[in-house]
């Protein structure tokens, strides 16, 4: 994934099913660390970039109306790109279970149903 990502946040009604198919953010960091440990470089650029992007994605989500809490652990989803898969983030806030999707690409089907889109 490129260094600077222009995250797009979608604030949508609750998604209640399928969460078990996604890895939590903390598990994804663990997988990245495990992959990098084969090269004896746990503090790799990929892990630092992932953590930085997670922080930026949360900032973008707050601009969309996210109240800063989680109903359950935040998750990572993957999208195909030209030469790789790139990650995005999705989570539910505690208050009313609304779902926030933060993506590196526009998701037009979510734009149609989102109560707020922050680019």
| Number of structural domains | 1
**Largest sheet geometry:** 6 strands, antiparallel
State the total count of DSSP E strands: 6
Backbone structural class: alpha+beta
Q: Using the alpha-carbon principal axes, give the shape.
A: globular
Radius of gyration: 14 Å
Uncertain residue segments: none
Order of helices and strands: EEHHEEEHE
Helix content: 25-40%
Helix run count: 3
Beta-strand percentage range: 15-25%
Termini gap: 18 Å
Can you characterise this structure?
Helix content is 30%, strand content 24%. It is α+β, with helices and mostly antiparallel strands and 119 residues long. It has one domain. A six-stranded antiparallel sheet has the order 2-3-4-5-1-6. The chain is globular, with a radius of gyration of 14 Å.
Short description:
With 119 residues, the protein is of the alpha+beta class. The chain is built from 3 helices and 6 strands; from the N terminus they run E-E-H-H-E-E-E-H-E.
Label this structure with key terms:
single chain; 119 residues; alpha+beta; six-stranded antiparallel sheet
Helices and strands in order:
Blueprint: E1 8-12, E2 23-24, H1 25-37, H2 45-63, E3 75-80, E4 85-92, E5 99-103, H3 108-111, E6 116-118
Antiparallel strand pairs: 1-5, 1-6, 2-3, 3-4, 4-5
